[in-house]
Specification:
It is a single chain. This protein is an all-alpha fold. It has a single domain (19-256), classed as Ribonucleotide Reductase, subunit A (Orthogonal Bundle), CATH 1.10.620. The protein contains nine helices and two strands, in the order βαααααααααβ. It has a two-stranded antiparallel ribbon. The site of one fe (ii) ion has 6 residues, from helix 1, helix 2 and helix 5.
């Protein structure tokens, strides 16, 4: 099996009625942050695929070309699965959330129309560098295996984050192969990572008051709690812009390799 396998998975999807917004480890900040990621990737990942597909002809290294193709096929599976889960989130009815979500789509449509290839590939790498950090952090903290994590969303994210680690080198390698400009890469890390975090913080602002009224005070996310969430992710973001950052030197625990095999065995198909 290729180290970047394209799996088709089958997941149990929650309905809006049986979806508890505090679904990650009984932690409301982590839950809204991860819910925000689920919504965001539904529009981000098509952008990743389009951005890399349009420069694929310029890649002269056959192995990298295949890895980029596999990256795109993995990402396409991710957003299709997230779209199904996102119906449960949006179906709970949060005034203003659908409009904010539509702005994410409008942003990515605009980026594809108005930004050049280097900007788009730089955005892909800026985002993927962050995803790799957060995937490693989520496995280290075992948040998706936590007994108080929704098993259905947990299964979706374990698969997604495992594949993010499988393809962690691809965006970096294509950026280096085509452009290799460190300062521009650093700028795109800041742009991409602040773009998702602005959306996540808006999700918290929109969803928390509605859920606090519905379910009680344990769903409240105050401004200091939002600031703390940013403070926690900031070191991860800074790591990605250091001149010596290279996903090749990251240590991926053996348990991830075992998880990759487990996912391949559980997939409807894998190639
Ligand atoms: Fe993904
Ligand atoms: Fe990815």
């Amino acid at each position: 099996m290729h180290p970047i396998p394209v799996r088709k998975m089958e997941f149990e999807i929650p309905s809006p009625e049986d979806f508890d917004p505090k679904w990650v480890a009984n932690n409301i900040v982590l839950s809204y942050a991860t819910t925000g990621v689920s919504l965001y990737v539904a529009y981000l990942e098509p952008f990743l695929v389009k951005s890399l597909r349009r420069v694929l002809d310029q890649v002269t290294d056959a192995e990298l070309k295949e890895n980029v193709d596999r990256f795109c096929r993995q990402e396409a599976q991710h957003y299709m699965q997230h779209e199904r889960f996102n119906e449960a989130i949006l179906g709970k009815g949060y005034p203003g959330l659908a409009e904010r979500f539509a702005r994410v789509k409008a942003d990515f449509d605009r980026f594809l129309k108005t930004k050049d290839e280097r900007w788009c590939v730089g955005f892909v790498e800026g985002f993927e560098a962050y995803t790799t950090q957060s995937a490693l952090g989520s496995f280290k903290g075992r948040v998706f295996d936590h007994p108080r994590t929704d098993k259905r969303f947990g299964a979706l994210f374990r698969w997604h984050m495992a594949e993010e680690l499988e393809h962690r080198l691809v965006a970096f390698d294509i950026y280096e192969h085509l452009y290799g400009d460190y300062l521009f890469r650093a700028k795109m890390c800041v742009i991409a990572q602040s773009h998702i975090w602005k959306f996540i913080l808006d999700c918290m602002r929109i969803m928390s008051p509605v859920d606090t009224a519905r379910y009680g005070d344990s769903y409240r996310v105050s401004a200091p709690m939002r600031a703390m969430a940013v403070a926690i992710v900031l070191p991860m973001c800074l790591r990605t812009i250091m001149p010596w950052y290279k996903p090749h030197s990251l240590v991926v625990p053996d348990s991830i390799r075992a998880l990759s095999e487990e996912l391949t065995a559980a997939a409807k198909s894998a190639a």
